[in-house]
Design a protein that fits this description.
Elements lengths: L6 E12 L2 E13 L4 E5 L6 H9 L6 E6 L2 E2 L7 E4 L11 H11 L4 H14 L15 H13 L5 E5 L7 H18 L2 E6 L2 H7 L2 E5 L6 E6 L14 H25 L4
Parallel strand pairs: 3-8, 3-9, 6-7, 7-8
Antiparallel strand pairs: 1-2, 1-4, 4-5, 9-10
Helix pairs in contact: 2-4, 6-7
């Protein structure tokens, strides 16, 4: 197995044109993510977190710099880099099972080849008994379980997660965080996780990259040296709260800058 990074952003900048004016969303971002690492990107609203993730996914291209996956330039989306969005965007006319197996079917894979894998993942994400339900019959948390299962059955190298629990209530969000921790322990895929929630980032990740206000840059990268497997109880530990205070101070400073920036006309 190669020791090269799975994901590498090298001096990446991104500029958008808005109403005839150039707006720099990202500036000189360099990030290296190792194989099997759970890496979180954290920052104030509008700092370019999702833009960064979209470039890793292949949905967008940098204005300057390079984005590489497994040593090769990222130019297009790939099933090896699967995305879990804030809204799971399920097919409403398909059952839970059909939504989960949709990608496998479109690849022409025979059900006999994936049945065992699908059953195992359905069990892991707690969807047993819901296979015949339709999305309209599910809660927000259950829909997101389907979205995560749909990605996991494709066995991607990397999970790109864009605030996947952002629309959930606090209690459901905690349940989903614990679920993701459990699933990640089993599958050990490389994860790039975008969030604005400090506690969520520190609970889940091996490393947290804190971004500046626009134009987004990496202000600081912190190693989260908490033992695994982790549970929600780790959030009460002294080391966790020390990290949280440090990150909160960084985010507060950048949020003030972002508030000032939003008052300026584009």
């Amino acid at each position: 197995m190669s020791d090269r990074p799975v994901i590498e952003l090298a001096d990446v900048s991104k500029t958008f044109d808005k109403a005839g004016r150039s707006v720099e969303a990202l500036q000189g971002v360099s990030v290296v993510i190792a194989r099997n690492e759970f890496a979180a990107i954290l920052g104030p609203s509008g700092c370019g977190k999702s833009t960064l993730l979209n470039m890793v996914a292949g949905f967008d291209a940098p204005t300057r710099g390079a984005v590489r996956f497994d040593g090769e330039p990222v130019t297009t989306p790939s099933p090896r880099r699967a995305v879990v969005f804030q809204e799971p965007a399920l097919f409403p006319w398909y059952t839970v099972l059909d939504n989960i197996t949709f990608g496998l079917k479109t690849r022409g894979i025979a059900p006999t080849a994936y049945r065992g894998r699908v059953e195992a993942i359905i069990e892991q994400v707690g969807l047993q008994g819901f296979e015949s339900h339709y999305p309209a019959e599910l809660s927000g948390g259950m829909k997101q379980r389907v979205g995560i299962a749909r990605v996991l059955v494709m066995e991607p190298d990397v999970l790109l997660m864009d605030e996947p629990f952002g629309s959930l209530d606090a209690q459901t969000r905690s349940v989903m965080q614990e679920l993701l921790l459990s699933v990640w322990e089993r599958h050990q895929q490389t994860v790039l996780f975008v969030t604005h929630d400090i506690e969520e980032a520190l609970l889940l990740a091996d490393s947290v990259s804190v971004m500046t206000a626009r134009p987004g840059r990496i202000k600081k990268r912190l190693a989260v040296e908490l033992p695994r497997p982790r549970a929600l109880e780790v959030t009460t530990s002294p080391f966790f709260n020390e990290l949280k205070r440090e990150v909160l101070a960084l985010i507060r400073e950048e949020s003030v800058k972002a508030a000032v920036e939003r008052t300026r006309p584009l």
